[in-house]
Design brief:
globular, alpha/beta, 2 domains, 349 residues, homodimer, seven-stranded mixed beta sheet
């Protein structure tokens, strides 16, 4: 190959300590790169992104606040990152050939890019009959996060009372379905009546409620959990976590996957959780987790989840945005309860 | 035996939702009971208390607030409870003989009482050369709580950075010493300069600070933990827990034994912990515990602790109050940083 290709990419123009990032913070620019494989270092690949995953944690890398969150902040002027599904168009690694489809767990939000052929890249089996985008959803990190929280940390038993917040979201939808498959009684919370319906009808939760209309969370939890909560899969933190801590059973487990209610705020201005003392009396275990620390279990997960998906035992809902230019809008949608299921950008058909 | 014995006992006259209980809430009364063993039911004992353990959790049973704490509230007019060391003076259980010394983990704060010879009573080996009161301290539930938090939940490694709050208290003094014996670097916090000295000189902590003078907890933790905190043995909750969560290392463990800063307050009026989100980024495990759930490990603990005590590897500090009439004062002392080590009442010489 010769010449150059044009590639659009999203970069961080300014930090956004508060609120949802806007076009002041995230900007699209066009760069050129050489498609000539001789132009890249050894153990690198040139790839074209096909699908890009849009996840709440990405927002935490744009605050400019080094407050113990997740990963380091994205540097100003640098391209922001996400999990992507990409096609190899040039390879300086004998394990990858042109045309291979790969899952890149943490790469540039760009149309084309050069990436190291590093540890956690994963090739998609060309014999797989599953849609490619599922490798960013049920079979990717969102599905894996749900599996780690429920199966590794949650210790679900038949009849356990399980509560999942953000239950129609990219991770929550799988958390509840996995708990159901273990014989648990599962209730979800979400931010619209339409999503309540989805959770019950499509994801098979025993029940669900809209936290925006049932604003007395304590009363809601009393109603939906007359026998208390054994496992709370926390995606939201804040007030909901506080309410849950007044309804936990002895030895309850709280795997904390994220706290989306907390991402937009500087921590000293957040409303604190006032009833942690209940964790002593009820002997509660609360555990934050990142999927990266559990990758040794990814194989077990993939095998289990693939068979669930093939047997139709797990339903996966995707919200697809089109074109790389949709990143800003799709990221914002995560914080306004406006989307269903997993948010993904289709960069190229 | 015939006739009657007079026995003084502390009963709950009124609930104390706020503040430290006073003589309005806790009152001493004299009752009579028959020392005749024929007067008691089968599988019961008549005992004379020798030592009574005074512990912070006792205060939580007097608030009248059923808010998920520990055990059920003491009923009004009922005798309040504590761990005691007692002598059997009458027995309707063939496993116990008059003169046996027993540890009663949860019995009436009284000079004499009739108790069921139930599950968790434990006989003190008459061949033991250790002072009896140690069975309420290093060899009793405080020592066991420290052991569970550090060894069962804390996963200490040589070089781990360990922080213990209320480090001169009945549990904290052992938590830090056990961590030191595992090769950890241990720092404690406490409420007076005198106790800082004690912690360093008698308990062998690497360092300690007075949270009443080093009021910028964040700065204090930066100073004492330049490499972050791996294990926080929490006895106090509240502001200190929040400060710790800004200094935790990846995969830190926070066994929560108690939250003494929180006991006096109605939960909705407490200052919340605002930075729980750090638990996700740092993958922190926080776990409340009660010793009652770990009694299957008591034997392992007792063996280990007894050898430490006999070899002089663990120092135990007692603050002895004299006479059952001292209960109110001794309980109050727990909430004013005025005592050192484990608080015990010697009922009878």
């Amino acid at each position: 190959m010769a010449g150059v290709v044009e590639s659009r990419e999203w970069y961080l123009a300014a930090y956004a300590p508060e609120g949802v990032p806007t076009s002041d913070h995230l900007k699209l620019r066009t760069v050129t790169l050489s498609p000539d494989v001789d132009s890249i270092p050894d153990h690198h690949l040139i790839v074209q992104n096909i699908f890009i995953s849009v996840d709440p944690y990405q927002r935490t890398l744009m605050s400019g606040l080094e407050d113990g969150l997740y990963f380091s902040q994205t540097k100003l002027n640098e391209v922001v990152s996400a999990s992507t599904i990409a096609r190899v168009i040039g390879s300086k690694d004998s394990s990858y050939r042109v045309g291979d489809i790969i899952l890149n767990p943490f790469g540039p939000i760009a149309e084309y890019c050069v990436i190291p052929s590093a540890l956690y890249l994963r090739k998609v089996d060309p014999a797989s009959e599953l849609p490619l985008q599922e490798y960013l959803s049920s079979l990717g990190l969102p599905g894996f996060a749900a599996w780690v929280g429920i199966e590794v940390l949650g210790d679900p038993k038949p009849g356990s009372n399980v509560f999942v917040s953000a239950a129609a979201g990219g991770v929550g939808m799988f958390a509840g379905q996995l708990a159901k498959l273990k014989g648990c009684r599962v209730i979800g919370s979400t931010g619209s009546d339409e999503k309540v319906k989805l959770i019950k009808e499509e994801f098979g939760y025993d029940d669900a409620f809209n936290y925006k209309t049932e604003t007395d969370l304590d009363a809601a939890l009393s109603k939906y959990f007359p026998n208390g909560i054994d496992i709370y899969f926390d995606n939201v933190g804040g007030e909901m976590l506080e309410a849950v801590l007044n309804h936990v059973n002895k030895h309850a487990r709280i795997p904390v996957c994220g706290m989306i209610s907390q991402y937009k705020k500087i921590w000293t201005e957040r409303q604190g959780v006032r009833n942690l003392l209940n964790m002593v009396g009820k002997e509660v275990r609360m555990e934050g987790f990142l999927v990266g620390s559990h990758l040794n279990r990814f194989g077990d997960f993939a095998k289990e989840m693939e068979s669930y998906i093939k047997e139709g035992k797990i339903s996966s809902k995707l919200k697809i945005y089109h074109g790389i230019e949709s990143y800003l809008e799709s990221l914002g949608s995560l914080f306004t309860s406006s989307n269903f299921g997993k948010v993904i950008i289709e960069v190229k058909k």
